[in-house]
Amino acid sequence: MAEFSQHHLLGIRGMKRSDVEAVFETARGFKDIINRPIRKVPSLRDLTVANLFFENSTRTRLSFELAEKRLSADVVNFSAASSSVKKGETLADTVRNILAMKVDMVVMRHPHPGAAHYLASKIDVPIVNAGDGTHEHPTQALLDCFTLTERLGSLEGKKVCIFGDIRHSRVALSNVRCLKLLGAEVMVCGPVTLIPKHFESLGVKVEYDMDVALAWCDVANVLRIQLERQGAEVPFFPSLEEYHRRYGLTEERLDALESKPIILHPGPMNRGVEIDSAVADRDDAVILEQVENGVAVRMAVLYLLAGRLGGSED
Predict the structure, then answer these.
(1) Dihedral of the CA atoms 126, 131, 137, 142 (nearest 10)?
(2) Is 58 helix (H, G, I), strand (E, B) or coil?
(3) 3-state secondary structure of 162
(4) Contact yes or no for 274/163 (Cβ under 8 A)
């Protein structure tokens, strides 16, 4: 088993480069497995994983659930919308009750930043952060970087720009940390209202002109506009049409470039807003590869954490 120093996966912050490389090495093996006729392995047999989603999710929850089932784990799915949380039960009480059912690992998405760290301080089983508010989304960053390494090899010195709603994104912060850990140069680009000032302190470039940023980068990672997090009182830009005009990734913008970047999008996409359908479906877009790699990377994370329990099998 590859060397992995983490007891939990709460965020990219705190991970070593060797941890990231261990995830990638393990994911390569699992990607071979999920592309063969028999796609299951007994690595997490007899372990139970609880998926606790206190916030709506489709893609991430299904990706984790598929990863768990490919590893032969028993899976318990929990939705806050139909739980005792609606009756006032605390997060810690909810998880203690689930752990009393002999759950071995927890995957959690929560709307509040730091919820996964709080949970890790209260219970003794490995926690995987599947997104906490606008803070971090570590497995998304790992699968994005894994996808890039498949296309580019080493990310050392590669230029990656993250476009869009940086302020409300948990993907952006995790990606910045993971990319820099792997030696990439990182830029963020979007309206001034959607780029927090503290991002410059992370050692990234900040650009407000999309065409300048596209000409600079080897990779364009396009984030969706998160209208559900922005609220309606103070708009961050005049209109979706204006946003698309200034920051939408279009074929016209790409055709004007001498060198075309690799295009990523963590999904779900707002087609016709931050990215045009014709761009999303291009050969140099790796969006569907991200989806496939998401299962392999999450299998790797679960396997490595289970190995630290002493409960996994080869």
Answers:
(1) 50
(2) coil
(3) strand
(4) yes
In terms of CATH, what superfamily is 17-136+293-309? Aspartate/ornithine carbamoyltransferase (3.40.50.1370)
CB contact set of 264 (below 8 Å; sequence gap of 6+): 144, 147, 148, 219, 220, 221, 222, 285, 286, 287, 290
Q: Which of 26-35, 90-99, 180-189 has the lowest mean pLDDT?
A: 90-99
Q: What is the pLDDT of residues 187-196, one digit of tens each?
A: 999 999 999 9
- Within this chain, domains 17-136+293-309 and 138-290 share the same CATH topology: yes
Domain definitions of the chain by residue range: 17-136+293-309, 138-290
Verdict on whether the full-model pTM lies above 0.85: yes
* Predicted local confidence at residue 146, as pLDDT: 98
CB 273 within 8 Å of CB 225: yes
| Phi, psi angle pair for 91, to nearest 5° | -60, -45
177 C-beta neighbours (distance < 10 Å), count: 21
- CB atoms closer than 10 angstroms to residue 6: 19
Phi then psi for residue 289, to 5 deg, are -65, -35
Q: Which parts of the chain fold into alpha helices (H)? A: 17-34, 59-70, 91-99, 115-122, 138-152, 170-181, 210-216, 227-230, 240-247, 251-255, 277-280, 287-309
What span, in angstroms and rounded, lies between the C-alpha atoms of 206 and 208?
7
Which residues, in sequence order, are bridge partners of residue 206? 188
* 3-class SS of residue 148: helix
What is the four-CA torsion angle of 56, 270, 164, 114, rounded to 10 degrees?
A: 0
The alpha-helical segments, DSSP class H, found in 200-286 are: 210-216, 227-230, 240-247, 251-255, 277-280
- For domain 138-290, give the CATH superfamily: Aspartate/ornithine carbamoyltransferase (3.40.50.1370)
CA–CA gap between residue 110 and residue 54 (Å, rounded): 5
Closest by Cα among 138, 107, 109 to 23: 138
- How far, in Å, CA of 26 to CA of 302, rounded? 10
